[in-house]
Design a protein that fits this description.
- There is one protein chain.
- Helix content is 80%, strand content 0%.
- Helix 1 (3-30) packs antiparallel against helix 4 (107-136), helix 2 packs antiparallel against helix 3 and helix 3 packs antiparallel against helix 4.
- The two termini are 13 Å apart.
- By secondary structure, the chain is mainly alpha-helical.
- It contains four helices and no strands.
- The protein has one domain (3-136).
Length: 147
């Protein structure tokens, strides 16, 4: 089993957890809540998510560097590179969001982070959809699989 098989398995969990986490954060920022009850769990889960995103990006780079080049005759896979750059951008923005803190007090800052979360959710979804397209339309990482 190559890296191109491990990457999607890991990333499906990362995308699902990230979607739930970002929707949770949007709700937290838009509606009143008790900070003492949800700030600490949110911080712990979001920090763990960053670690998982880092693993996802790392396995993706390994897949692109090893498996994909062998399967595609050494030709550069442009959309694979774009997908990788989007993954790095998700990692950077998610890290910025976690460093931004769980509960900003000023309403303007709460609106900013809500918009930031929505943008990050759209970028995460776009990255995932491009990855699915690369696998199911282009066959990236699936040659050599036997059932």
């Amino acid at each position: 089993m190559g890296w191109s098989h491990l990457h999607p398995a890991l990333v499906h969990f990362v995308v699902g957890l990230g979607t739930i986490l970002l929707l949770w954060d949007i709700k937290r920022l838009r509606f009143p809540y008790e900070p003492a009850r949800c700030d600490r769990p949110f911080a712990l889960i979001s920090e763990g998510w960053i670690g998982l995103v880092l693993l996802g990006v790392g396995t993706g780079w390994l897949a692109l560097a090893t498996d994909a080049l062998l399967q595609h005759g050494g030709a550069e896979i442009y959309l694979g590179s774009v997908h990788g750059e989007m993954g790095v951008l998700v990692l950077g923005l998610a890290t910025a969001r976690v460093l931004g803190g769980p509960a900003p007090k000023p309403p303007g800052l709460r609106r900013f982070w809500t918009g930031f979360d929505i943008g990050l959710l759209l970028l995460l979804s776009g990255t995932a959809l491009l990855g699915e397209w690369l696998v199911f339309r282009m066959g990236l990482g699936v040659s050599g699989i036997t059932l």
